[in-house]
Every structure is written in structure tokens, then in C-alpha cells.
């Protein structure tokens, strides 16, 4: 694959802080290698801005290999850009053409307030996990891995849900800013395993309650989240969340 | 916005004071619970549509047959009134929840995107039927109001009810009344639009309701998807056929 150099028009959301109104600013960036990742392109933009004495663009990133869930960005109206099953850090500039205008926005949701530029506060997800996305175990030595046998097909369902990296693309892409795909993945990964069963009812009730408290929208089953999810988490988990919720509402002991 | 939230939560606050209803109110006040109520009320209304279409298809059996059916239905008296109140309650619940969850969903987004695209495949309607639920719902509601004025109250402006007046009372010849309404050009137009909107609404609504009630399995999803769409458009096409029949029969 040959290396081309692109000249890009970048329309970037700039916002100095949570209380600032924010606005788009346009930057010209020339000589962008098609081998760069999207985040490397932003690094180059920031070098240019620093050299010009401007504030660099703040954006979230960490592992840059598609597994940590830190990167975000709405790129030309697509969560994580135009590729399916790909995070922003794994998106390459060869997906763009010379002379393109690229619009970069932060995730938009009341539950994800913008902290600065393209960085949003996703701690609402942490609070949902803290409300029930765990199993209670005694500390000490690690338990024997195969002490509870789980059939392979079950493990696969749990693993498909556990693929969620918690990036928030589902919320960003949903027209209702609903967190149902995220919450359903975190409920499902434990609900289908025996280790998750003792706390099954309390988990789903508490996590849904926290989800509502954070101000996420409700699910209208448009499947936009599934299409946008870089980990390809299926909306079948949302149906499982609904089943778990119905079951727990009727049967929970407290 | 706080005022809106407080107003919306008023019925729930009052109901939660009623002994024994606490747990039910708790379930119904979450977003998931509200979607479940939305699904149950929507499917109930679908059940009504099935019965309504089955009855209306009697129009094809002729004047005597349809009028006999209408008389039998009306002679149920208090039972029919009770069913109508139930039906009205389902509509009120479904529409009320649509408005309240819709408003809260707008609040949940906050500031809108400058550009918003999708990774989902192209569909006939931009964004698919799921993006048109509020619009099609409102069109169906408008159609429904016209329908009740025309058919139940029989005071539709511009409709010539004289063929139905041959009998002693209007109510005595429902067959002629239906024909009179459906063959009025303005009504044929409104009913067609309303019924197409209904088809679009149901083509997402039925499958969506089942998903909300937890019905989703990769073994069955394909057949379920097409069965739901078939049911939606069978209902719409069934009603539309009656409009075409009435226009043609004039």
C-alpha cells in the first residue's frame, strides 16, 4: 500500500471548559500520511497548533490498539469514524481523500458532559458498573478456574457481551442518547454465567435505576448502537436486559 | 426542564401512595418499564386492529351480512362500552408515554450533532421506519379522530349520509354509512394516507414491541422479523382494500 500525502480541512469542536459554549474552528493540515492513524493525525495537528502558540486540541486516548475504550470522537457524523467494528485509534487516514473536510465532534449526551474540546466525562458508565456490574467474591487466592463448568456456547454468549469496551459509541450514535447497549452488555456478561446468578435480580434493577438517574434516554430499538459499536455487541443483549428486568421486577425478594 | 419532569412524574407520585401499587409504580417509572408499557399497549392496539379488520371484511359479504354484524356488535351494550373505554385507555397510555419518553429522549441528547450519519444499510425511508414513529403516530392519530367523527358520530363534514338515511335511523344501515364515507374523495385520501402511515408505524412497532418484551433469539429472528412486517402490512393492506373497494363501487 503506497503512502500518499493528504491535505485536509479539519472542522474541530473547540470548548475551553464545561461551562464554555464552544464552537467549531477550522484548521488546514497538509502532508498527512495515509499510513497515520486518526489520532496520529490529531497529534500532528496539535504539534502545528503548539508551534503557532495555540492551545492544542484535547482528546481522549490511551492504548491506541482498540481495546481500552478511551478514544471516542464523532467523525463526519459517525461514532469512531466510517469503518465498521473499528475504534478511532484504529481508523487510518487512508480512509480519507485529499482535500476532504473532516468534521470532528465530541460525544453528545447530557449524561456525558463535555469537559474540554473533544473530551467528555464518561464517569456515568463507572457509576452504572458500581451499581451492580460485578460479582461479589471473597478475596484471597484465585479460585480454581474450572471449579464451575460452563458449556462452551454459554461462554461464547458471555464473551460476546464482555467484548464491550465501554467507549460510549452506543450512546453517541443513538438518537435518544440511550445507554441500553452498554448496560445490557454489562448485565448479560454476568447474567448468562452461574457466577452471576446470586446477584442477578439486584444487579439489573440497580443498574437500570442508575442508568435512569444519569439521564440517558430510553431504547426505541433502532439498532443504531449495534451498527456503531466497535466491539460489535448485539442488540440481542438488550432483549436479554429487558427479560432480566421483567423477571427481576416480578421475582426480586426485596 | 425541571418543571416538565416534575409535571410528568405527578401521576406516578399520586399512584405510588395507593396501597399495594408501590412496586408497580416503581417498575413503570423506569425507562425500561415505560418501554414495556409502551409495548404492551401497542400490541393490545394491534389486537384491536385484527378484530376490527376481521369485522370490516364483512363488507365484502354484502349489505345484509355487514349490517347483521354491526347490529350484533352494538347489541353488546355495556360490554361494548367497557371495551371502548379499555381501548381509549390503551390509546391514552401509548400516546402519553410516546410524548413523555420522546421529550426525555430529547433532553438526554442535549446539544445536537452538526453532522449525523449512520452505519446501517439504506432503507426506503431515511433512517428506517424506526425514525418515523412519532410522525406516523401523529398521522394515525389525526386519521383516527377523522374516523371517529365520520363513522361513529356520523357528522363528518362534506360526507353525504343520505343513502344510509333510508332506514329509520342512521345507525340502522352501517353498510351504507361506511360506503358513503369511504367514497367521499377527501375521506378516501385521508384514510389512504392514515393507513399507509399505520403500515409504516407497525412495520417497526410490532417487532420493536417484541424486542422490548425480551423476544429475540438468533434462531428465530429472521422468521420473526418477516412475520412482524407481514402482519403490519397485511393489516394496512386489508383496510386499504376496503377504501379501494368503496371508491370502485360508487
Low-confidence stretches of chain B: none
Helix content of chain A: 25-40%
CATH topology tier name of chain B: 3 helical TM bundles of succinate and fumarate reductases
| Strands of chain B, count | 0
What kind of sheet is the major sheet of chain A?
A: 5 strands, mixed
What proportion of the residues of chain B is helical, as a percent range? over 70%
Largest sheet of chain B: none
> For the largest beta sheet of chain A, what order do the strands appear in spatially?
2-1-5-3-4
Strand content of chain B: under 5%
- Taken as a percent bin, the fraction of beta residues of chain A is 5-15%
How many E strands of chain A?
Answer: 7
Distance between the termini of chain B: 53 Å
Q: Rough shape of chain A?
A: elongated
Main CATH class of the largest domain in chain A = Mainly Alpha
The average pLDDT of chain A is 96
Helix and strand content put the structural class of chain A at alpha+beta
Question: What's the CATH architecture name of the largest domain in chain A?
Answer: Orthogonal Bundle
What class, by secondary structure content of chain B? mainly alpha
**Oligomer kind:** heterodimer
Structure description:
The complex is a heterodimer of chains A (254) and B (250). Chain A contains eight helices and seven strands. With 254 residues, chain A is α+β, with helices and mostly antiparallel strands. Chain A folds into two domains: 111 residues, Beta-grasp domain (Ubiquitin-like (UB roll)); 122 residues, Alpha-helical ferredoxin (Fumarate Reductase Iron-sulfur Protein, Chain B, domain 2, Orthogonal Bundle), CATH 1.10.1060. In chain A, the strands form two sheets. Chain A has a five-stranded mixed β-sheet with strand order 2-1-5-3-4. A two-stranded antiparallel sheet of chain A has the order 6-7. The longest helix of chain A has 16 residues. Chain B has a single domain, classed as 3 helical TM bundles of succinate and fumarate reductases (Up-down Bundle), CATH 1.20.1300. Helices cover 70% and strands 0% of the residues of chain B. Chain B has ten helices and no strands. Chain B is globular, with a radius of gyration of 21 Å. The model of chain B has no long low-confidence stretch (mean pLDDT 91). Chains A and B meet through helix 6, helix 7 and helix 8 of A and helix 4, helix 6 and helix 9 of B.
Amino acid at each position: 500500500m503506497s503512502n500518499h500525502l493528504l491535505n485536509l480541512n479539519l472542522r474541530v469542536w473547540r470548548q475551553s471548559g464545561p461551562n464554555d459554549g464552544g464552537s467549531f474552528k477550522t484548521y488546514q493540515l497538509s502532508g498527512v500520511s495515509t499510513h497515520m492513524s486518526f489520532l496520529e493525525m490529531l497529534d500532528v495537528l496539535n504539534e502545528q497548533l503548539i508551534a503557532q502558540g495555540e492551545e492544542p486540541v484535547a482528546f481522549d486516548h490511551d492504548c491506541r490498539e482498540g481495546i481500552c475504550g478511551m478514544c471516542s470522537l464523532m467523525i463526519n457524523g459517525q461514532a469512531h469514524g466510517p469503518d465498521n467494528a473499528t475504534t478511532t485509534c484504529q481508523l487510518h487516514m487512508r480512509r480519507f481523500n485529499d482535500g476532504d473536510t473532516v468534521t470532528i465532534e465530541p460525544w453528545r449526551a447530557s449524561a456525558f458532559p463535555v469537559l474540554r474540546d473533544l473530551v467528555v466525562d464518561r464517569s456515568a458508565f463507572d457509576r452504572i458498573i458500581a451499581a451492580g456490574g460485578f460479582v461479589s467474591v471473597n478475596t484471597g487466592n484465585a479460585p480454581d478456574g474450572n471449579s464451575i463448568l460452563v458449556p462452551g456456547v454459554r461462554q461464547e454468549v458471555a464473551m460476546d457481551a464482555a467484548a464491550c469496551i465501554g467507549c460510549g459509541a452506543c450512546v453517541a450514535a443513538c438518537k435518544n442518547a440511550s445507554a441500553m447497549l452498554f448496560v445490557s452488555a454489562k448485565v448479560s456478561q454476568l447474567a448468562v454465567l452461574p457466577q452471576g446468578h446470586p446477584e442477578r435480580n439486584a444487579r439489573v434493577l440497580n443498574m437500570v435505576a442508575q442508568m435512569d438517574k444519569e439521564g440517558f434516554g430510553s431504547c426505541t430499538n433502532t439498532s443504531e448502537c449495534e451498527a456503531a459499536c466497535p466491539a460489535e455487541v448485539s442488540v440481542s443483549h438488550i432483549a436479554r436486559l429487558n427479560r432480566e428486568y421483567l423477571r427481576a421486577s416480578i421475582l426480586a425478594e426485596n | 426542564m425541571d418543571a416538565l419532569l416534575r409535571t410528568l412524574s405527578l401521576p406516578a407520585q399520586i399512584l405510588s401512595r395507593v396501597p399495594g401499587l408501590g412496586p408497580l409504580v416503581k417498575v413503570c417509572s423506569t425507562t425500561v418499564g415505560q418501554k414495556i408499557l409502551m409495548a404492551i399497549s401497542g400490541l393490545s392496539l394491534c389486537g384491536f386492529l385484527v378484530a376490527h379488520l376481521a369485522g370490516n371484511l364483512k363488507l365484502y359479504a354484502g349489505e345484509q351480512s355487514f349490517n347483521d354484524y354491526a347490529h350484533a356488535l352494538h347489541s353488546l351494550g355495556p360490554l361494548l362500552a367497557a371495551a371502548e373505554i379499555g381501548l381509549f385507555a390503551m390509546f391514552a397510555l401509548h400516546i402519553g408515554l410516546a410524548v413523555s419518553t420522546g421529550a426525555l429522549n430529547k433532553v438526554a441528547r442535549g446539544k445536537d450533532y452538526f453532522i449525523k450519519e449512520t452505519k446501517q444499510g439504506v432503507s426506503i425511508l431515511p433512517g428506517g421506519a424506526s425514525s418515523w414513529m412519532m410522525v406516523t403516530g401523529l398521522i394515525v392519530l389525526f386519521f383516527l379522530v377523522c374516523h371517529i367523527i365520520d363513522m361513529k358520530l356520523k357528522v363528518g363534514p362534506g360526507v353525504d349520509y343520505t343513502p344510509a338515511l333510508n332506514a329509520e335511523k342512521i345507525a340502522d344501515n352501517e353498510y351504507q354509512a361506511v360506503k358513503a364515507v369511504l367514497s367521499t374523495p377527501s375521506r378516501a385520501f385521508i384514510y389512504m394516507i392514515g393507513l399507509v402511515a399505520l403500515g409504516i408505524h407497525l412495520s417497526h412497532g410490532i417487532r420493536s414491541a417484541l424486542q422490548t418484551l425480551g423476544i429475540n433469539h438468533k434462531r428465530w429472528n429472521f422468521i420473526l422479523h418477516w412475520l412482524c412486517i407481514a402482519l403490519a402490512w397485511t393489516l394496512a393492506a386489508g383496510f386499504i382494500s376496503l377504501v379501494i373497494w368503496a371508491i370502485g363501487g360508487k
